[in-house]
Amino acid sequence: MKRRDFVKLSSLGTTAIILDGCKTKDSAEKKPIVYPVGMKNIKVISTWNAGLQANKVAFEVLKNKGVAIDAIEKGLNVTESDLENTSVGIGGLPDANGDVTLDACIMDHEFNCGSVSYLKNIENPISVARKVMEDTPHVMLSGKGAYDFAIQKDFEHQELLTESSKKMWKEWKLENNNVLPAINHENHDTIAMIALDEKGNLSTGCTTSGWAYKLGGRVGDSPIIGAGVYLDNQVGAACATGMGEAIIKICGSHAIVELMRNGSSPQEACKIAVQRIKNSNKDLKDLQVGFIAMNKNGEIGSYSLYSGFNYAYQDAQESKLIDSKFDLEWD
Ligand code: SD4
């Protein structure tokens, strides 16, 4: 039997054991980790308020014994197709030129991942990302290539700039002299999600229209594996929201998974990642970032730099919004 291999399911099918998945901080010796599997452990978390609706759909998939990757795709599709959501999919706020350009990525329990960036005119980029993962030898497609691939896979060409998003963009152009707005709790709700299925497998994904009124061509953290999301099924998963530039610089989600591997709880790991961002940026003004994480045991955590970040939680018992812990008050 190989080290780190999934060892066995218990006779009741409610626990599984892995070796060396999450070492405790001071032990070099490989302690077996027992983690729960089974229907009573299924759960979903996702960023911001819009996560409540998305979680419901994702949870339905899990409840019907579906796999985590399906839960992620179906859940995130809800937010992408919500015309009222100005941060994701159709209705997302455009870049400075008025183009809606979308970023998304998805990752499963076997390190398979797919991603699209700078994708125009396709309502559900997370589904295109999944096709990249499943139907190509690549991880990431961008721009026109991603669009052409989506059309080839029978996705529909859509106008993504709604009348209300267009109006907001025009007002911004007139009033703000091309100054980028802050990414905060009032104007942003990119969705990033983690799901744990009945087999004890995790998946994660993220989808966004990115920083409103960004420069044309800008790509954030959300389609970047390791920044916007990361997952090691023997350890846990993490995903991000907020200013992508700061998240990319510390490989935020990957950092959190590595911290969990070395013994941090999801909560501690998210906090340490935020501290790294705090310490690696001179100007913290308007630099909101938030992380959520779940480990193999289904324990969850989150942390943001500023107040105002929340995330949605759903399991068999409850669906709720949780206010994240944070470092600084938003004024
Ligand atoms: C980006 N991280 O494009 C995204 C934006 C975001 O809540 O998450 N906003 O940088």
Task: Summarize the helices and strands and which ones pair or pack.
Layout: E1 6-9, E2 15-19, E3 32-36, E4 43-47, H1 51-63, H2 68-80, E5 102-107, E6 113-119, H3 125-135, E7 140-142, H4 143-152, H5 163-176, E8 191-196, E9 202-208, E10 229-232, E11 236-242, H6 244-249, H7 252-261, H8 266-280, E12 289-295, E13 300-306, E14 310-314, E15 319-323, E16 326-328
Parallel strand pairs: 6-7, 13-16
Antiparallel strand pairs: 1-2, 2-3, 4-8, 4-14, 5-6, 5-9, 8-9, 10-11, 11-12, 12-13, 14-15
Helix pairs in contact: 1-2, 2-3, 7-8
Bound molecules: N-hydroxy-L-asparagine (SD4).
Q: How would you describe the overall organization of this protein?
A:
- With 331 residues, the protein is of the alpha+beta class.
- It has a single domain, classed as (Glycosyl)asparaginase (Glutamine Phosphoribosylpyrophosphate, subunit 1, domain 1, 4-Layer Sandwich), CATH 3.60.20.
- The protein is 28% helix and 26% strand.
- The protein has eight helices and 16 strands.
- The strands form three sheets. An eight-stranded mixed beta sheet has the order 7-6-5-9-8-4-14-15. A five-stranded mixed beta sheet has the order 10-11-12-13-16. A three-stranded antiparallel beta sheet has the order 1-2-3, with no helix packed on it.
- The N terminus is likely disordered.
- The site of N-hydroxy-L-asparagine has 14 residues, from strand 11.
